[in-house]
Specification:
Elements lengths: L1 H35 L6
Length: 42
Amino acid sequence: MDLKERKRKRALIVFQIVIYGYLLTMFFIQLYMSFARGWWDL
């Protein structure tokens, strides 16, 4: 029972890391695309 709970918690943590990593990747791609299009003049 305890081992099952621990595995489930680890699976949830891994799942969250994957989701947040995906969202961050999407965000950075959007940011890069906007810079590449020259929307921002730095």
